[in-house]
């Protein structure tokens, strides 16, 4: 099919190193002795554990319920016994522990009753819920809950649905093999997404270094009589970034400030479409995924691995060579070094690469920036990385934002080409996290200030009220006593004794003007807080291409921010009311 | 606490040393033409400048407590040294080259913070300082009729032979300007270019081929993506247009644009000076503006000013404007091209 391609600026062409891991078909990884299933495997709320230690569970049983709309459920990858629900090291660069369900498999691998959903007759809302409860999230590595991306913008119809099979990261071949072997299911899943979004066209983008996958997908589309367009896109990292692929296939550029649906386009990974179809058509929740195991191993291959399988068990399947000194999760451009092989495979684990000093030589020493602009030339978001670097280094964070720091997708192209070997992306991450933490502090300070002002206003109003009452009482007294004695006793004493009666007789005194002002201010602050909270709840961020750990950091920050607001906003909303009572 | 490496785990082939090495290679065609024209004495000048630059660099690195091996081998000091040697008069006394190079490295580079930090082009700073301090020596170029052998040249550089005016002439640019001034309207440019021995086929006799050498090396650097097209095109374009406009207006008083393109430091400046990433503009439009304005200034200074050539001052003046140019020429980013 003829399709005009648009291309994107920048990008690099690192060695792809994909050939070794596509020689064999996808293998079924054996059942490990223990499974460690983290509850929090996606962006958004951390699922609540629904099982207890000692409980017998079946394969596919819900073990973590989605926490709110922006969350996704977690299921048991096999049948067996829950040994514990405890903190276990996470597949995260920090290696920090996270709440994990530890399962001892019974070896029977016995499914729950799987109930296929007749998704065609269900309301779209029900289908989205079903996807959430089946734990369907973006399997390209971003693990963003898919159901939350399946709503069109209110004012813009979805023109194109982009299915991302580009897989631009070197070494990684899990999507390639999935497309080769399970193309039909991907196409069917795409059709479901298309229906939910009412998308006019479906464009499946695959980098042209995967001719087998392109052919398999084309054949599947034809067999199923769909009109999806399978498009081979030029191989250039990061063509598989959602925004880059959207640009290449549709010419649309989604800035950080907008949702792709605002521009009438949405993007999903092929593996996500696959799992969505399995979930709806077979009632199988997401309990495994395809993981590329490659690099410095004797047996590079793609494996279908149960979530929760310790990385150590997975890595052993590949027989790492003796000089292996590190393991990466994800690709070499955006992935991270696994701090502990006890960490389990999670939904974000698309690739595990064994590294050696020859495969990934240590970075040469960092030199000063010579402003050569090589980074700006390769930046797919057309930023000026060296300017961002100067500002980040100088902790001039306002300027970094002015130069669009948050449009950076951290693809690593700038670091890749830098002749001075400056780890630019690290500087940008540093700047981003500094800005986030400052934002938090600022919000806390603002909330505290609002509370303080409100308290002051109330104190002032109470004082004014008191003074007025005193004055009124004094006036009443003096007018009563006028005929009796013009030279009355000192007014203070009179006033004090008159307080109670004054309050009782005139309960509805109009508030003094100063109070009205403060009240108005407080109400505005509260309304703004509410609006912000609402916006935060609705708006997706520029987080779709971020790695899992970044997404999680963001999610954690959001959660803390929400807590902060929850703490402060009731005060702000209620206090004026209480004061008015 | 274990420290883990950070992505990306694969890196490209680029390095500062590689960039600088390629710039040096880009200078070779020009140097070859230079040797053909004047003999091997330029090699001595290049060597002296290189040694002075590395010595100055080593001293400053030591004083600043920076790693010697890493920075001495980055090649940036050698590039500065070569540019100085090529921009200075070929038979200038040794102390002029050495002093100029030390000034470039110590003051113009390291006192501002070293590699990547200097706001002014070090080679051009040295040139400007020397031409202001030693105008006579900096304007003495070997007269072409004068055939000195290498030994004589070396003795001249070493200061063992007294400098007599007979030995030296002026650059073609200077010669033209002086002749016009002396003639006071009685002479015209076409006649001068056709009759005087200092002028060759299209610019200065002999020197025009050195310029061609720089052009070749510069185009190679552009093809290797070490330099962009914007700054050279802006520079050559504005110089050409200004020269052409005045030439069309009064061919009797102004030399043709081709003469200007291949005279003085035009080609060296276009491909090796205004393209300096550290002291130049960084955005695409900024590079064009930087080159364009430098070309205009260079022409005005070399034709109407008091110095034989104007490139050094033009570049230094534009170096001053770089932060402003960069600020106002930030390109629109991905997804924001239709927003203002």
From TrEMBL, chain A:
Named cofactor requirement(s): [4Fe-4S] cluster
Q: Name one Pfam family in it.
A: RnfC_N
Q: What kind of membrane protein is this, topologically?
A: Peripheral membrane protein
Which keywords belong to this entry? 4Fe-4S, Cell inner membrane, Cell membrane, Electron transport, Iron, Iron-sulfur, Membrane, Metal-binding, Repeat, Translocase, Transport
Q: Where is the stretch described as Disordered?
A: 463-491, 560-581
BP-aspect Gene Ontology terms: electron transport chain
Q: What is its main location?
A: membrane
Q: Where does [4Fe-4S] cluster 2 bind?
A: 379, 408, 411, 414
Q: Taking every annotated instance into account, which residue ranges of this chain make up the domain 4Fe-4S ferredoxin-type?
A: 359-389, 399-428
Compartment list: Cell inner membrane
Please indicate if the UniProt record lists Cell inner membrane as a keyword. yes
User: What are this entry's molecular-function GO terms?
Assistant: 4 iron, 4 sulfur cluster binding; electron transfer activity; metal ion binding
Enzyme class, spelled out: translocase
Q: Where is the composition biased (Basic and acidic residues)?
A: 572-581
- Relay the cofactor remark from the entry: Binds 2 [4Fe-4S] clusters per subunit.
Query: Could you tell me what this protein does?
Result: Part of a membrane-bound complex that couples electron transfer with translocation of ions across the membrane.
The protein's matches in HAMAP family, at most eight in alphabetical order, are given as: RsxC_RnfC
Q: Which family does it belong to?
A: Belongs to the 4Fe4S bacterial-type ferredoxin family. RnfC subfamily.
PANTHER family linked: ION-TRANSLOCATING OXIDOREDUCTASE COMPLEX SUBUNIT C
> NCBIfam families recorded for this chain?
PRK05035.1, rnfC
Q: What binding partners and quaternary form does the record give?
A: The complex is composed of six subunits: RnfA, RnfB, RnfC, RnfD, RnfE and RnfG.
Q: What is this protein called?
A: Ion-translocating oxidoreductase complex subunit C
Organism whose genome encodes this protein: Candidatus Accumulibacter vicinus
* Gene behind this protein: rnfC
UniProtKB/TrEMBL annotation, chain B:
**What's any GO biological process attached to this entry?**
electron transport chain
Q: Name one Pfam family in it.
A: NQR2_RnfD_RnfE
Q: Name the GO cellular-component terms.
A: plasma membrane
EC code: 7.-.-.-
Q: Which residues form a coiled coil?
A: none
Q: Which cofactor does it need?
A: FMN
Query: Record keywords: Transport included?
Result: yes
Q: What class of enzyme is it?
A: translocase
Q: Give the FMN phosphoryl threonine positions (modified residues).
A: 171
Which ranges does the record mark as transmembrane?
A: 20-37, 43-63, 94-112, 124-144, 229-249, 255-274, 286-305, 311-329
Regarding protein family, the annotation reads:
Belongs to the NqrB/RnfD family.
Which PANTHER family would you find in this protein's record? Answer: ELECTRON TRANSPORT COMPLEX PROTEIN RNFD, ION-TRANSLOCATING OXIDOREDUCTASE COMPLEX SUBUNIT D
Q: How does it assemble?
A: The complex is composed of six subunits: RnfA, RnfB, RnfC, RnfD, RnfE and RnfG.
Q: What does this protein do?
A: Part of a membrane-bound complex that couples electron transfer with translocation of ions across the membrane.
Q: Which NCBIfam families match?
A: rnfD
What is the name of this protein? Answer: Ion-translocating oxidoreductase complex subunit D
Task: Name the species this protein comes from.
Answer: Candidatus Accumulibacter vicinus
Gene designation per UniProt:
rnfD
